Structures are given as structure tokens and as C-alpha cells.
Amino acid sequence: MGQPTLSAHADVPLYSATISPKMAASGRVHLLLLLMSVPFCLCTVQGLKAPSGNGNGLGNPPANPPVPVNIIGAPGPVNNVPVAPAVAAMTQPRRATGWKLAEEQSCRDDLTRICPKHAWSNNLAVLECLQDRKELLWNYKLNLTMDPKFESVAMEICKSTITEIKECSEEERGKGYLVSCLVDHRGNITEYQCHQYITKMTSIVFSDYRLICGFMDKCREDINTLRCGSINVGEKDIHSQGEVIACLEKALVREAEQQDQAHPIREECKKSIMRVAELSSDDFHLDRFLYFSCREDRERFCENTQAGEGKVYKCLFSHKFEEAMSEKCREALTTRQKLITQDYKVSYSLTKACKADLRKHRCNLDTNMPRAREARLSYLLLCLESAVHRGRTVSEDCQGEMLEYRRMLIEDFSLSPEIVLHCRGEIETHCSGLHRKGRTLHCLMRVGRGDKGSTVDGLCQSALQTLIQSADPGSDYRIDRALNEACESVIQTACKHIRSGDPMILSCLMEHLYTEKMVEDCERRLLELQYFISRDWKLDPILYKKCQGDAARLCHTHGWNETSELMPPGAVFSCLYRHAYRTEEQGRRLSRDCKVEVQRILHQRALDVKLDPDLQKRCLTDLGKWLYDKTGKEQRRNSSMGSQSRGGKNREGTLECLQDHLEDLLSGCGEVVGNLTELQSEDIHIEALLIRACQPVIQSHCHDVSDNQVDTGDVMECLVQNKHQKEMNSKCTVGVTHFQLIQMKDFRFSYKFKMACKEDVLKLCPNIKKKVDVVICLSTTVRNDTLQDVKEQRVSLKCRKQLRVEELEMSEDIRLEPELYDVCKTDIGRLCSNVVFGNAQMMECLKERKKQLSQQCHQRVFKLQEGEMLDPELDYQLMRVCKQMIKRFCTDVDAKNMLQCLKQNKNSELMDPKCKQMITKRQITQNTDYRLNPILRKACKADIPKFCQPILNKASDDSELEGQVIGCLKLKYADQRLSPDCEDQIRVILQESALDYRLDPQLQIHCAEEIPGLCAEEAVAQEQTGQVEECLKANLLKIKHDLCKKEVLNMLKESKADVFVDPVLHTACALDLKHQCAAVTPGRGRRESRPPVCSQPMTWGYIYLLHHLSVHRHRI
């Protein structure tokens, strides 16, 4: 084929060519396609010098060069536009062979500055590079698009296409609308020649906004108002037309962000702007401003990316925040991204990839929604995400495009006009200079959480929540680049078993929160994101997938991409977890799969109180009142629990503080804290940090119950029972004890107790809320029924069993009995400050110092001891210290007779010394007051008022009688006036006290000086063989205090009445009693009187007895 020649052909000067016969049939089409090259040449031929000679490829000039003509051949100006001198130059002769436009002097400077070197040898490439350089080009292109004859050519080439496209067939002819319409619908053109033709026309049309169908008419006023540049020819030169469009686009973006309300763009111009952006979406060359702004960046970042189908846009978008990206290009890209957020069709790749899915899932058929909202990127994402979350099919290509744009929204907050508008103040105050890679958004999230000491405006909070829902980072953590980079090391170590991009990655990260594998930056980013995810249950894709049916059935929810003002943040999840723990009797419950996910979320929320929107909202006032003014206390708690929280504001410390002040909370806050605590009692796994701290003891002692899919309070009960095992560490102990203390505030907080006794509480203890009061109420009822031998207990059997468990747990720590603890706090600080709580050690300390206690504390301790003596199983220290001895001696003994059994085996050679010492302590306590000895009290219930009423009249109900009643009964025993049952019990007491003086309170009190003075060695030995008593008897004449003498004489009198009550005497005379007095009934002094039946020779022991009695006979 020969070189093209410039000639006058018919009506218009255009390129001609030597054409082979094979191509003749389609010659007109090729000529028309060549016509598209003319504008590119016209822009730079002005001023070219006409060489002489024959043309060698550009053709010979005609004999009479024609006058400049318009497209239809008429000489003179076109549409009143002056014809530039360059038009005349078009008809000048050119070199025939080897002519290069780049060699012309007038073009050389522009070529060197603007066009890449590899294009210099190609005239057409040079012309394309320089097409926007002169105003003459625009005049010619305007004529080209508006001329009716040119339209007739288009109608001939695209005849079938125009018929198929209804909008184009109806366009008015002669105004350039037909060509513009075909450009608009070029994506639907299937006819090859027409498609080629329109593709060339596109590059012409988009080089100047005034060539676009109706654009100038619709936007003329806005261009002038906004001062976006002149619409008059020649006033602007370099890239002016692209800058006009860019100016309008920026104004449209500002208006969406409500930053520029002074000059709102008219609606018809808005549509034209968006349409231009949409039509230029496939080829970045068509966005002239962006093209010129990003040419160098394109070469730097996207050199190997082919133009077309929006590929260059996508490439540049992905590098937008690179350091090497020019600021001008970054701004142009941001403007285009903002236009995409307003209308997703501005993205060619997204529209193409998701076109079928949008139609399939009816995402653009909502007649109740304004088109502007329907076209928003956020709506498209929400609609298609809804389909994905509901298990519908969305093509991989579409999901890939969605992923890119969701990441784009997270990375650059400015793409969300609501964020820019409503969060401007927060950004300026807290988040300036953090624009790149999503750091601004995370900063706003942190402010929204309240981690910076202030909160965000409600509108800003709503805008953040909307953006998070649109981007949906919960479905793929990689969308959030800041989180991805911060948590990469944690994911590689702790979550490497989970597929990359899987939604479970976030759950895995939450499970490792506050562990050694977690890093601080990841922790912070994770909590910032989870704060917003927790406020919309749909943002957890696994939860939504498993629970959408349950939510619709039980909570009356809307679709995934629908919202309701009647559903506040967290309301749906609150509804779900209320149904998760219902019993079959209580009605509708969650499906098993949904319940598992609800429990997973609850476990995660337990790590940070701010992840519970209902709690944070309703407790805002109380948090300010109780939490922040007790920082030191809170930090100590966090430290003891090992929460590892940065800043001391984690869930454990915050919730614990609220639980501690439960009675003082506002009603709304108290309700939500109470409900949450009640829920914890049923499923302690919700307290993730506690479970983590208690793993060693759970694995060793509670693995059977911890493996159950449903925890009904068994794990916590097991932890309490094993609280003092060697595997129990301090962190776990603190957590378990705190939970026990909180349970005391409301019986509902003990799940097993609540389920076992709720009917009994309603019937027997109505209007009682505190657990300790409920326990006392029910225990009193059980005791009274037992004492009265009623046929049927009022408290149910299942409640009595659980009541026993609660009573045993309460006995372990004085703090679990709030009323006792409150009145004894001062005494504890004064007398037991070095004693640690737990293991009933504090209670034991108070018992041992009972005489030093304040009156109120003393009274409470006495009441407690009275209950323990009535039911020794409640005596935690006794049961703990003597646990093995109970197994050895008292396996089959009823719990209420446990102390009696231990006393009977106290002097056995197999008795453990520590247990023996504990038994002695309890005996000493019992002998201080008959009320602390239930067996004696029952046996002597008639004798006590009969013989000891004066003592009773002086006594109070809650203080010891210091052995006075027992002393009274001892005297009557010696006088042989007691009833047989009472006599038997007093004999036992006399026998025990004869071996250990400490069991005789009156002797201890009245002989307090004599014992250490006369019998110091015997007292220190504490061998419990009666040595102190024998010492006092032997030193009777040395005793100065009459009351002490009286007590010693009473001992002698008691021995005279019955040799069995004096173990020393009985041991000395054992053989004599066996041989001489075996037939004599014990008691009433019969054996000492040596009746006739006892006439055998006496041993030296018996002689000693008679001598001992005769010496002191006159005193007795």
C-alpha cells in the first residue's frame, strides 16, 4: 500500500491512499476511518513550510488549492467559527517520501517535551500525542460531530446498530446528538465496522466537553457560576477542556460532602457530569485531566498495563498511596474514586463484572428508592454482600471487584462524603496527618470507642458505622490494610491453620487477645474494628449465616442491607442471646448452630466491655461515676487477673467495677449488668480471661464438666470446690472468688441454685433478692422443719441439695457472708491484718480472738458458730483439716453428727494431730455455751430452765455464757439431780474437761493466775492427760483466789460423785474397779463409797484415791 496523500476529495480534504482492488469494496469505510486521523494532524500542521517538488506519499497538490471548507464542502467559516490560518496550510504540498512530522521545526520542541521518543517516527502517534494542543482542532472536531452529512455517514455505517438502540434512533438529527448517543452506547455495539468508527469518534468527543452530546447546553451556567473556565473559543489553551470537566467533578464531590452549598450544581448538569465519567470509565485516556495528571505515574507504576476495560484506573488506584505517586495524580484519582462512590457505573470493571449479578439479585430494581441512592457504590456493595451472606451465588469476578472497592473505602476515608462532612472536627482534632492506608479511619474508630478520652458526634458515629457496613471487613480482614499489616505476625503464628481471607481469622485473633502471641498494635487495631462490628450482628458473616433464620423467627429482623430505627445497635444480638439460654419449658429457643455462634460472640465480648453496645450505652453515667475515679483499685484487679490490658480499661476491670456497685447503679445499667452476670453464671466460658487463667485446674479436676457442650454452672461449681488445689493459681483464685462475691448480690447469679430453688424462693422467701438472705431464709425453714420433725419438708429435695452446696461455699470465705464481713471489717484490720481470705482462715482468726472482738462482730461470730455446731459440715476448717480422718472414722456418719464422731475418735492412735487439735478447738468452743452443743441442749432442755434459770435471765441471745450453764449442770450432776439423758451428756463433758483444763471455761477464767503460776510446766505441755487439773488439786491449799478454789473443789466433788468423770483417778483405779466394783453401777459416788460388795484387797491406786478424798473432805 502506498503512502497516504493529502487531496481534495469530493467535499472535504482528507487522506487518500493507493488502495488495492481487494479493498475497493469497502473503500468508503476505510476512508471514513482514515478521516478519524485528520484531526490528529490538524493540531500541529499550522505553520509548516510547503516544500516544492512532487509529493512522495502525501500526493501532488491540486492545480488550484481549494479555499478552506467545512465538512460539507462549503467555503468559509464553520458555524460562525473563524477558520484559522492553519486550514490554508492543510492544502499546501508536502514531501512525498520519508516525511516525518517530528522533523518539522515548529513541532520539535513540543515533541521533545511531551511525546515519548518511541513515538517520534510514527506520524499518527505524534498527532495523537499532540491532539489537544491547538484550538483549531476543536473547531474541526465540533464540525465533525455536528454536521448532518457526517451523521448520514454514521447512519450508513451503523444503520443496523442505530435501529437496535432505541435511544439513538429517536435522537434529533443535525445537532451532533446521534454520534454522541452512539458513543454513549458503544459498549452495546456488536457490528465490527460501526464499533471501529465509534471507537475513533470517542477519542475525539472526549477530548473536549463541548463535543459531548448536550453537555455544553446543560452545564453552561454551572461552568460560569463555578468559574471552571471559559466556554468561549480560544480563552484557554493547554488541557483546558479536561480541566473544565475536572473542575465540575470536584464541585460535584464538594457538594456531596456539603462543603460547597453556595453554588449547587443543577440536576441536569450533575447527570451529564456523571455520564461523562461513566463513558470514560473503560479507557483512562478519555479522562483527559486524569490522563495528563497521571502520565508519568502510569509509566512508573503501570507501564505494562494495557489501556481499556478500566485496567489502568485499577492499577493506579492500587498505587495511590505509594510514596512515589505524584500529588496531582493522587488528587485526580481520589476525585474519580469519589465519583465511583456516588455512582458505581463510573467504574467500568465493577459494572462489567457485576452486571449479571446486579440483575440476578435485583439490586437496581427497587422502585421505592431514588436513583441517586440506588446508584451509590455502598448500595451495590450492601446488596451483593447481602446475597453472599444469605448463601446466594455471586460470581468470582464480581466478588473480586467488590473486594477491591471495599478495600478502597477502608483505605481512604475521604471517599465517604458522610465521613468528611460529619467527622471533620474529630479528624482535625485527633487524626490529622494520618490519611494513608486507613490510618485515619482507625483513628476515628479509636475516638469512637472513647479510647482518646472523648467521644465522637452521633452523626460521625453513624457515618463510621455505615462505612464499616459497606466495606464489610468482617468477611475478609485483608480489606483493612492497617489491621492486616498490624496483625500479620499474629496471624502467621496463632492463626496459620485458617485459610487466608477466611472470616474466622478475626475470631482467631480475638481468641488470642491478651495472650503472649498478641502484639500491641494488632490488639489496638482489632478492638477498634470489633467495636463497630459488635454493633451490627450482620457484620459477623458466620453469625449472620447461622442465625439469620433464628433472627427473623424470634427477633423480627429485616434483610441484611436494610435498617430499622426500631432496632438500636446490639438489639438483635441481645434478642438472640436471650433465646440462646432458654430452657424447653420457657418456649422458643435458638437452633444449635446459632447458639454456638452466639456463645462465640459472647466469649469475644467478654474480653472488652466496649464490645457490648447495650452495656456501654446504658452504663455510660455509672462508668464515669464508679470506674474512672477508682483507677488504682481497678488496675490492681486487672493486675491480679493478668488481663494484660493496655490502659486498664478492659472488660474484666470495667464489668467487675460495675458488679461491685450493682446496688448503686442506675436502674437501666443495673438491669443490663444483672442480666449479663446471670448469663455468666450459666456459662462461665463467657468470661474468657477467667477460663484462660483457670485452665490448669480445669484440665486436672473439671475436665469432665468442661467438655460438655452446654455449661449449666457446673464448671464454676467445680472451680469453687477445687479452689485450693495445687493447680489453682492466684489469677484463677481471684477470678473465682470475685464471681462468688458477686453471686451474693442476687440469688439469680447462681444458675444452679436459681434453677433448683426458684419455686421455693417464690413460695417461702418472696421479695428477697440477695443470695445470702435467700440462703438464710431457706436454711432456717429447713432447720425448723427438721427440729419439729414435720412429715414433709417445705423446701423441695432438689433445693435442699443445692442449698447445702451454697452453704458450704459460703463458709469458705467470710466475704461471702456480707453482713458478717461488714460488721467485722474493723476487727479484721485490727486483729487479722496478716491473714489472707479464703480457706476460712479469716473466720478462724476471728474465732480465736473472739474475746477481743467488738460487740457487733462478736455477736455475729457467735451466731455463725451456733449454726456450725448444729451442722458441722458448714465448718469449713474442720471439714478441710479432718477430711482424711472423716474418711477413716466417720464414713457412714450423718453430716450433722460429724463432730461428735470425731470427738469419740479423738484419742485414737490413728488420729491425725492437726485434726485432733482442730477437734479440741471445737470442744473448747462448745463448752463456752450450751447453745453451741446441740446434743447437750436437746438432752438437757428440761434441766436447764429447771436448775439454771437465773443464769438464763441474765444472758443475751447472741453472746456466750462462758460455761455458766454447763457449770450449773455440773453441780447438779454432783448432787445427783439431773435427768438420765442430761446426766450422760454432762458426764461426757466432765470426762473431756478433766483431761484438758481448756475445756472448762469457768476453771480457765477463775484460775487464770494460778495455772501459769502453780502449774506452768503442765500447762505448756498441753498433753491433754489431766496434768493441769491434778496440779491444781495438789496445790489446792496454795490457791489464794476463792473462785479458783471453788472450781477445784467442784472438780473433786464431781470425782467423788463418779470416778469415771476423773480420768486420772479412773486410770489409777482401773484394776480395783474391775476386780472389786465390777457389779456396781457408775455414778452417784457408789464406787468410791466401797459398799460391801466391794470387799476385796485394795491396790495402791485405790488407797491413793481414798487418801485424796479424805484430805479434802471438809472442803468438799
From TrEMBL:
Subcellular location: Golgi outpost; Membrane
InterPro entries: Cys-rich_GLG1_repeat (IPR001893), Cys-rich_GLG1_repeat_euk (IPR017873), GLG1 (IPR039728)
Keywords, sorted A to Z: Glycoprotein, Membrane, Repeat, Sialic acid, Signal, Transmembrane, Transmembrane helix
Superkingdom, taxonomy of origin: Eukaryota
Predominant localisation class: Golgi
Cys-rich GLG repeats by residue range: 264-324, 393-452, 517-584, 727-786, 794-854, 910-977
GO molecular function, one term: fibroblast growth factor binding
Gene Ontology cellular component annotations, sorted alphabetically: Golgi membrane
Signal peptide: 1-43
Topology of the protein relative to the lipid bilayer: Single-pass type I membrane protein
Entry keyword annotation includes Signal: yes
The protein, known as: Golgi apparatus protein 1
Source organism: Oncorhynchus kisutch (Coho salmon)
